[in-house]
Write a structure and sequence with these properties.
8 helices, about 30% helix, 3-stranded antiparallel β-sheet, 2 domains, Aminopeptidase, elongated, alpha+beta, 10-stranded mixed β-sheet
Amino acid sequence: MIFKNKTLVACLPANIEQQVLYSHQGLTYGGFIYKADLKFHVLVEVVKSVLLFLKKNNIQELVLKALPAIYLNYRINNALDYLMFKLKAEVFRTDVLSVIDLKANTTYSRDRKAGIKRGLRHGVTVKEEATFEAFWNTILIPNLKSKHNVKPVHSLEEISYLKGLFPNQIRQFNVYQKDSIVAGTTIFETKNVAHSQYISANDSKNKLGSLDVLHDHLLKNIFKDKPFFDFGISNINKGQHINEGLLYWKEGFGARAVPQSFFKINTANGSFLNEVFV
């Protein structure tokens, strides 16, 4: 927490591991949080004071996961890229989010239109649910286990707990054929963005077009007034490669690339910010 004259002006959510401070290993995004009206010279002092504090406490490196611009509630006060340049920060990873600008005149690809038609022919329906059990236990956990031998980042208990804390920001949409769940997505909603945190379907997804019908419903009905819809990344191997098939599916709805950079900053470089103003 960073104060100026006893007034809180910024904060940095973070965790520490082996003399490295991360913002944040447990969050999709990280970085400094501050009000839109914070002046540039104050932001410089905020970042400089944090790096000085870390250096004094024998923390050698700060790692930041940048907040993609679409998530900012302010559009003209994001000077951190410039400060990364001044600090000689290393960009050691860049992911690519697939984002739809819902205010633009985007169109679906032929494949996505065909998938929607298949889904309607097979009678699939979309329903928002208050709980996560059906999706987690029937679709998400079995899929991640069989395809990647991993578990969801959030357990059922954790996502249910978060829903209790943020009932209007975490939403679950399931797809059914008759009375059987066949697909679903978990949405994290912010002021500007609806983000698919989890997307999964059973093996019938291509035949049924379940995910196509689901996202058509979300884009045209549920989140049509949002500025952006974020499908998340298609990166694998720490950003080095992209799952081409997954990216192709997302771009079929009109999604295009928004980068997210990861920075490494030597805390000793905080003194470089003394040279910003002349």
